[in-house]
Design a protein that fits this description.
Length: 337
């Protein structure tokens, strides 16, 4: 058996440092990443529930957008979420969850200076280790998996409320248990045994969309393009213009890549999403085929995204770019060589 760079697990020294920092903390801010997903929010709320029970004042926040996506509003612990303006300037410990780099904190990155200690908890391989303590496991399915390991080391029991938050990150970051490893289902089993309703959590997070999602999809997917020769595997891409997204939540737009990436004729998928507030600014989702013939030499999209100022995982990454749709596709094709 060969050792892959991904199979590193958690460093026990980092785990002990993280436990010590949280155990002695007298106040904690947890920062989730911008355009939050259920993994970052689930991680933040799980930590908030645990810290609050210990009598530690805790604030959870994310810089943008202004509102929590609708699918996550039933997560336990949402009462600990505060708008960025209410995040204190100074705390004992600032924890960044599921943030591969300081840029993922958005406007809340300025709170790092006021924290006595910064703890980074993440599973992105491209993590820049911007904390004083870095608890990074690139082999973990989700940041909530890393949090589970942290709570175990800390001796904190996982009850149904905490398990609900942890499961939220696990079920979404594994794509409903498609991207799994040995131990993934064991962790799911352990969380489900607390009495949480896995079907209900998955339905709320993954299988519920407003009607406008259907009409947005019809416009966006109708404009999808296939570039068969790119990198010898083919590229499929689509643009979500601000007008296509309309008033839809960002999570509805984020779901487009999961449809585009199913294209059989392409090993790489890209979705360009125009900002609703900054004209000409686009966030770009990249995916690389991780199974089937040729997967061993699949394109490392984390490398492509990092070269374009972003980051991510080998098979799922992203970056931000400016310009017209023509500029954007030219820039990506150039990076793909
Ligand atoms: Mn994650």
């Amino acid at each position: 058996m060969t050792t892959t760079p991904d199979a590193v697990g958690l460093d026990p020294v980092d785990v002990q440092a993280a436990v010590a920092a949280l155990a002695r903390a007298r106040s904690v801010t947890v920062v989730c990443h911008v355009q939050p997903d259920a993994d970052t929010v689930g991680s933040g709320l799980a930590l908030a529930l645990v810290l609050h029970r210990r009598g530690v004042p805790v604030w959870v926040s994310f810089a943008e957008p202004a509102e929590l996506p609708a699918s996550m509003r039933t997560l336990p612990g949402v009462r600990y979420l505060v708008p960025p303006a209410e995040v204190p300037r100074a705390v004992d410990v600032l924890v960044a969850v599921d943030c591969g780099g300081v840029n993922r904190l958005g406007a809340l990155a300025d709170r790092i200076d006021g924290a006595a200690t910064t703890l980074v908890i993440d599973h992105h391989r491209s993590n820049t280790r911007f904390g004083a303590i870095n608890l990074i496991d690139p082999s973990a399915e989700s940041t909530t998996s890393v949090i589970t390991g942290l709570l175990d080391a800390w001796g904190v029991p996982i009850d149904a409320e905490v398990a609900h938050c942890l499961y939220a990150g696990l079920v979404t970051d594994t794509g409903s248990f498609r991207w799994v490893r040995p131990g993934t289902h064991r962790l799911a089993d352990r969380l489900l045994a607390t009495g949480i309703n896995g079907a209900e959590i998955a339905r709320a997070l993954l299988d519920t969309h407003p009607f406008g999602w259907l009409t947005m999809l019809s416009r966006v997917l109708g404009g999808a393009r296939l570039a068969p020769g790119v990198r010898g595997v083919g590229l499929v891409y689509a643009f979500v213009r601000a007008a296509d997204a309309g008033e839809l939540d960002s999570e509805e737009v984020e779901s487009v890549i999961d449809i585009v990436r199913t294209t059989a004729e392409a090993g790489i998928a890209a979705v360009f999403k125009e900002s609703g507030t900054v004209p000409g600014r686009w966030t770009v989702s990249l995916r690389s085929r991780d199974t089937g013939p040729g997967a061993a030499d699949a394109v490392d999209v984390a490398r492509i995204a990092t070269g374009l100022g972003g980051g991510g995982h080998r098979f799922a990454a992203g970056y931000t770019a400016f310009g017209s749709p023509e500029d954007l596709i030219a820039g990506l094709l150039n990076a793909l060589g």
